[in-house]
Design goal:
single chain; mainly alpha
């Protein structure tokens, strides 16, 4: 269950980061409210996963999955770069996340 919570918290990063992008520097009310609310909820869910998981592993996975998710959202929603080098480095982050999860389970 802790791993599920960790993935949910990471997916929430995708929501709040995108909402904050849409808030135009916190000048648009609803994107700002959504972004800040989901950011707080994301940290709360992360904290729940930390009851079971080691903090170093959990936080690294939280940040890694969030970063890859937000980068993917940026490429899809905001036409950000999809250069092969960028994609390769995002793939390396995913390899690290998977590796940390495998090491933690053994």
């Amino acid at each position: 269950m802790a791993w599920v919570l960790l993935v949910v918290a990471s997916l929430m990063e995708l929501v709040w980061a995108t909402a904050l992008k849409e808030s135009d520097g916190l000048t648009k009310f609803w994107p700002t409210v959504i972004g800040l609310t989901v950011a707080v909820l994301s940290v709360v869910v992360l904290a729940l996963s930390l009851r079971v998981l080691p903090v170093g592993t959990a936080y690294a996975i939280f940040v890694g999955l969030g970063a890859v998710g937000v980068a993917a959202a940026g490429m899809i929603a905001f036409s950000e770069s999809t250069s092969p080098v960028r994609l390769a480095f995002l793939a390396l982050i995913l390899v690290g996340v998977i590796g940390l999860q495998l090491v933690e389970d053994s």
